[in-house]
Amino acid sequence: MEIIFILVIVAIVGAGFLYTLMFFISLMDDVSIYLFKKPLYIHLYLKPKKITPEQKFILRQKVQFYNKLTDKQKNYFHHRIASFTDKYQFIARKDFKITKEVETLIAATYVTLTFGMRRYLVDAFDKIIIYPEEYLSTQSQEYFKGEFNPRMKAVVFSWKDFLEGYEIDNDNLNLGIHEFSHVVHFHSLKNNDASSLTFRKYYTQLNKEVNHPPNKERLIDSDYFRIYAYTNHFEFVSVIIEHYFETPNDFKRKFPELYQNVSRMLNHKV
């Protein structure tokens, strides 16, 4: 009985210490957000989730970003992959089959984009709809390769075009990154978590610089960003983020200040 009593006391004291520690971390985090618009920490998982050996193999074979991570960072990546597939629903259309590769690559794309953000699971969408190839929109009666539909809370992909983002990794076309960038941008405009504040802060700064006439003229003349980027500010941010991941060295060399702002916007340090 005495041993049990002692163990109970130790457990209570330990729980109290843990609570105090988490309260202190939360308080310091609030200060960091207020002063610097950045969270004190990004990755802190009390019970990190695991993924299967098959999923790890897919990541090693397909995802360059993953292969650049340290072993510790890869464990964080695994946790986020598992959390993503647990939270969001995958829906197949036109006889498409949802496989482990489909789930893993779509999750990996989103995790890559949001790896520098603490709040990475957002409520702007709750489902991913996948067609085998381009699909006909019932609203516009036009064919699409992908879209983010906030009203339906859905991200939609043509798997053929999504996969090309991995098969050709230096053409500045990555459908998954593009559509998920719309999600992150949309979420940041409507929320005040640390990651949204950071994204919004540097996006505002980036937008001012880009829309300064001499800068915009130089961007257009460079022919580096495809003309679709200048359709509107939502498309521009998604296109430049595609470039950030697809041809980072070219981006950094041609437009170092813009590259730095995108890096800060995403809080990427890899």
Protein architecture, described:
By secondary structure, the protein is α/β, with parallel strands linked by helices. It has two domains: 1-36; 53-266, Glucose-regulated metallo-peptidase M90, N-terminal domain (Cyclin A, domain 1, Orthogonal Bundle). The protein has twelve helices and six strands. The protein has a four-stranded mixed beta sheet with strand order 1-2-6-5. Strands 3-4 form a two-stranded antiparallel ribbon. The protein is globular, with a radius of gyration of 21 Å. Residues 21-27 have low confidence and may be disordered.
TL;DR of this structure?
The protein contains 12 helices and 6 strands. The chain is an alpha/beta fold. Strands 1-2-6-5 form a 4-stranded mixed beta sheet. Strands 3-4 form a two-stranded antiparallel ribbon.
